[in-house]
Amino acid sequence: MALVGLDELRAAQRRIAGVAVRTPLMPAPWAEDGHRRLWLKPENLQPTGAFKIRGAHNRLAQLSAAERARGVVAQSSGNHAQAVAYAARQLGIEAVIVMPDTSPEVKVAATRSYGAEVVLVPAEERDSRPAELARRHGYVWVPPYDDPFIIAGQGTVGLEIGEDAPDELDTVLVPVSGGGLISGTAAAIKLTTPGVRVIGVEPELAADARDSLRSGELRPWSVEERYRTVADGLRSPLGVLNFEHLQAYVDDIVTVTEQEIRDTVAVLARRGRLVAEPSGAVATAAYLHRAGELRGRVFAAVVSGGNLEPKLLSELLM
To answer: How far apart are alpha carbons 4 and 151 in whole angstroms?
Structure first.
């Protein structure tokens, strides 16, 4: 499939206007060290608590009347789940969401609150059950990341960063999981602000995208390996179309440790006044802990989501 281009990104931006929040690019003076500056893109402020509403609405808005009548099915650990459920309710579409039985209860409850039916399955069945349900019931499958409409929707994050960034911006840090967010964001940045580097960030315990990008071929990690990280939103395998976007537009991927992720959740809450889930904290963690690898001076880091259990937040703040 062809890479998402600027026309698709601009169309998605128009389509999601008024549904997704145009989040600000916030300065983080507490993170300055005399040599570097940081700006934060707080996607945790979206209606569903994460950037996923951008891609979900863009995808569902493309469905024909006949497809909408069939209903949709999607799989997710939680943020795509909520986004699809929310967008489906807005558009009057029935939604069934397949979620791993390890998903945080706060994400399961939120998904149900938007009117979706939730089907809990073992983690290894998360990506296979939607196809079965689609065959059985005729649902339209809405993938979480390996889809051009999803990528274009998520890429509106990059368009906004490019429009709002200071002229000195040289590096954008983006969390990586299945790759929808970094695929679209990297495309948008490279197509509108050439010269700005895009660096992906993954947990060390779920670094399949880094391995794939550096080796030049998809190198999937097992479910057991990926599910070790506390960053539950970054446990998905890298998608095929997403890998093509990474090869075309992403400069590198770095990793952060579990302790660095946990510490950064607390830093964002205390210093940035932002509630970030572990998945949403990894880009900022890279800025704070990987200065030697990154080498930039003016950074933008995407805080991709803020949906986490209150108990976990309490633990991380202690």
So the answer is: 7
Decide if 196 contacts 171 (C-beta within 8 A). yes
Kindly state the DSSP code that residue 167 receives in the 8-state scheme: T
**Residues 86-125 pLDDT 10s:** 999 999 999 999 999 999 899 999 999 999 999 999 988 9
Whole-angstrom distance, CA of residue 292 vs CA of residue 288: 10
Residue 117 burial (CB < 10 Å; 0-12/13-18/19+)? middle
d(CA 279, CA 294): 19
Q: Render pLDDT for 258-271 as a digit per residue (tens, 0 to 9).
A: 999 999 999 999 99
Cβ(279)–Cβ(34) under 8 Å?
no
- Closest to 182 (Cα-Cα) out of 282, 306, 290, 63: 282
CB 73 within 8 A of CB 43: no
Q: Could you give the residue numbers annotated as active site?
A: 52, 304
Query: For residue range 77-88, what is the model confidence (pLDDT) as tens digits?
Result: 889 999 999 999
The set of residues, in sequence order, having a beta carbon less than 8 Å from that of 187 and lying 6+ positions away, is 3, 4, 5, 9, 151, 155, 158, 245, 248, 249
Q: Which residue has the tokens 């992906």?
A: 200
Tokens of 74: 């999607």
The percent of residues above 90 in pLDDT, for the chain, comes to: 92
Contact assessment for residue 229 and residue 236, using Cβ atoms and an 8 Å cutoff: no
